[in-house]
From TrEMBL:
InterPro entries: CAP/MinC_C, MinC_C_sf, Septum_form_inhib_MinC_C
All copies of domain Septum formation inhibitor MinC C-terminal, residue ranges: 103-149
Gene Ontology biological process terms, A to Z: cell morphogenesis
Spans through the membrane: none
Origin species: Helicobacter suis
Lineage top rank: taxon: Bacteria
One Pfam family, short name: MinC_C
Chain's gene name: minC
Protein name per its UniProtKB record: Septum formation inhibitor MinC
């Protein structure tokens, strides 16, 4: 007898796009999509399937419109138009960009997106609904309520009020967030193998 189990799953429906748009979306959002089913409306090309497998993401294909209530609980980076990507920056950073540091002395507003190959330093708050992605390091000296995806070798944080903090492809869990918030000191977050370390620095 075939055994079945019914489960409620959270799903992201993706509109029809080209391979580069899919790849950009998956790369930027992979840490936040681990517990979601990604639903495509058309068969996807092999390079997209390969990236989904690399990040171990669950996906399916259906032309049928699913019933259900849309949710705004999780905000992800939109799949940018390929033309827009080419105009804003190259797909691979130059050596100059790789070592550059961008400093933001203001608060980052809700709905604002910052996507960079450089290390990023924020002296103000990162508000709820803001989205920060860097291939290098991220330091936030104010209150953090937004989505943070850091692929560098370290992060500096304090006063974190967001459950969407991803470091080197791993989302910080409840215990790690509690460790960051246990006092008002800045925390240095690093990773050795699969172990994330968090220590006071100020």
């Amino acid at each position: 007898m075939l055994r079945t189990r019914q489960k409620q799953v959270r799903c992201f429906e993706l509109d029809i796009a080209n391979s580069q748009q899919y790849l950009s979306f998956i790369h930027k959002n992979a840490p936040l999509l681990q517990d979601y089913l990604i639903l495509f409306k058309e068969p996807i090309p092999p390079d997209v399937q390969e990236m989904l497998g690399k990040y171990q993401l669950a996906y399916s294909f259906s032309t049928k419109e699913l019933k259900g209530k849309a949710s705004d609980q999780v905000v992800v980076y939109e799949a940018l138009e390929l033309k827009e990507q080419k105009e804003t920056k190259p797909l691979k950073p130059s050596l100059e960009e790789d070592h550059h540091v961008q400093i933001f002395e203001r608060h980052i507003r809700s709905g604002e997106e910052i996507d960079s190959y450089s290390s990023l330093v924020f002296l103000g708050n990162v508000n709820h609904g803001a989205k920060i992605h860097s291939e290098q390091n991220i330091s936030i000296y104010g209150r953090c309520e937004g989505i943070i995806i850091c692929m560098g070798i370290y992060m500096v944080l304090k006063n974190v009020y967001s459950s969407h903090i991803a470091f080197q492809g791993q989302i910080l869990d409840t215990a790690q967030l509690a460790r960051i918030n246990e006092n008002n000191k800045l925390k240095l977050i690093t990773r050795v193998d699969d172990m994330i370390g968090i220590k006071d620095i100020a």
